[in-house]
């Protein structure tokens, strides 16, 4: 039986990866049980595993602007430790990365071989991790870039919109950033499929883009969330990124191409609307939607 190691197993994506690996032989390590910046601890953890799925990450994009060294230690140096350990044992490594390694100024979906050029510290820290995998594991290392993640097991945009729907009559949401809302359950299934294909020798090593098909804006995602939850999407108005300044620059165009999946025998992930429809049926989201709908039925303004 394949022996899997999942790091960052307590996070939003990590928990869905564990669900996708139900019935498999899995070692699940959280932030509390593995310090990925400790090379010796990483080496010991990787031993006797066939596939390592690294979901551990510094995810505070704005915080990285004033703590880039700390972010790079987790997103970059720690990945090098994992890659070195996998190189020593022959394990396959799947590293979850981000669209933020790209400049974000394209006008059409970016292919996997597009030039990098991070616009913020978080992107720079993740690019260090990508380079470590590609350098140390040219035949057995996989980088899966993703973006706009939402899921049941952590803070995310979709959950925030449903919570705000229960508190406010109307919202103003950024409409000038374009991307691909990606359900963590979809991505988790694909990561596991990629791990199996890597062991079978049917998936070429290198970079893949793990985002949903299609594209929208943050406002488009908010409106779709409202509509699918039985709420009035006209409550979601438009605004610009300039109206919500953040410490870290966000790419204006985070739409990724998915051509390399064909080389591994896979099609792209589902359309984002299809996945959002399924995600909102899950208990955590359904409860939030019900609370928002109850507020509307009661006629309260939430203030």
Written overview of the protein:
This protein has helices spanning 12-20, 39-46, 68-89, 121-136, 157-165, 184-200, 218-228, 272-279, 283-298; strands at residues 3-7, 25-29, 51-54, 92-98, 141-146, 149-150, 171-174, 178-179, 182-183, 206-209, 216-217, 236-239. By secondary structure, it is α/β, with parallel strands linked by helices. It has a domain at 3-155 and 181-213 and 256-264: NAD(P)-binding Rossmann-like Domain (Rossmann fold). α1 (12-20) crosses α6, α2 runs parallel beside α3 (68-89) and α3 runs parallel beside α4 (121-136). The chain is globular. The relative contact order is 0.15.
Q: Which fold name corresponds to the CATH topology of the domain at 3-155 and 181-213 and 256-264?
A: Rossmann fold
User: What's the arrangement of strands in the largest beta sheet?
Assistant: 2-1-3-4-5-10
- Rg over CA atoms: 19 Å
Instruction: Summarize the main sheet.
Output: 6 strands, parallel
Number of strands: 12
> Structural class, from helix and strand content?
alpha/beta
CATH homologous superfamily designation of the domain at 3-155 and 181-213 and 256-264:
NAD(P)-binding Rossmann-like Domain
Mean pLDDT: 96
Overall outline: globular
CATH architecture of the domain at 3-155 and 181-213 and 256-264: 3-Layer(aba) Sandwich
Strand content: 15-25%
Distance between the termini: 55 Å
Helix content: 25-40%
CATH class of the domain at 3-155 and 181-213 and 256-264: Alpha Beta
The number of helices is 9
Stretches where pLDDT falls below 50 for ≥5 residues?
A: 299-303
What is the element string, with H for helices and E for strands?
EHEHEHEHEEHEEEHEEHEHH
């Amino acid at each position: 039986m394949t022996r899997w190691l999942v790091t960052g197993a307590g996070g939003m994506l990590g928990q869905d990866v564990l669900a996708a690996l139900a019935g498999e032989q899995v070692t699940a390590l959280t932030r509390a049980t593995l310090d990925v910046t400790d090379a010796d601890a990483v080496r010991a953890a990787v031993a006797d595993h066939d596939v390592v799925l690294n979901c551990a990450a510094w995810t505070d994009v704005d915080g990285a602007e004033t703590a880039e060294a700390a972010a790079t230690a987790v997103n970059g140096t720690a990945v090098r430790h994992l890659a070195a350990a996998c190189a020593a044992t022959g394990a396959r490594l799947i590293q979850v990365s981000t669209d933020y390694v790209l400049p974000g100024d394209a006008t059409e979906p970016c292919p996997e071989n597009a030039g990098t050029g991070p616009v913020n510290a978080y992107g720079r820290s993740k690019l260090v991790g990508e380079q470590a995998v590609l350098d140390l594991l040219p035949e057995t290392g996989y980088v899966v870039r993703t973006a706009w993640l939402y899921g049941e097991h952590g803070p995310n945009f979709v959950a925030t919109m449903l919570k705000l729907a229960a508190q406010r009559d109307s919202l103003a949401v950024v409409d000038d950033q374009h991307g691909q809302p990606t359900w963590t359950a979809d991505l988790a299934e694909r990561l596991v499929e990629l791990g199996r294909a890597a062991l079978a020798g049917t998936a070429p090593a290198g970079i893949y883009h793990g985002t949903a098909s299609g594209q929208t804006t943050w406002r488009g995602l908010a409106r779709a969330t409202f509509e699918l939850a039985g709420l009035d999407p006209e409550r979601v108005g438009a605004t610009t990124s300039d109206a919500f300044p953040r410490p870290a620059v966000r790419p204006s165009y985070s739409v990724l191409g998915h051509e390399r999946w064909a080389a591994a025998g896979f099609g792209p992930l589902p359309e984002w609307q299809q996945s959002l429809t399924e995600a909102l049926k899950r208990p955590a989201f359904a409860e939030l939607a019900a609370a928002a709908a109850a507020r509307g039925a009661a006629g309260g303004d939430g203030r």
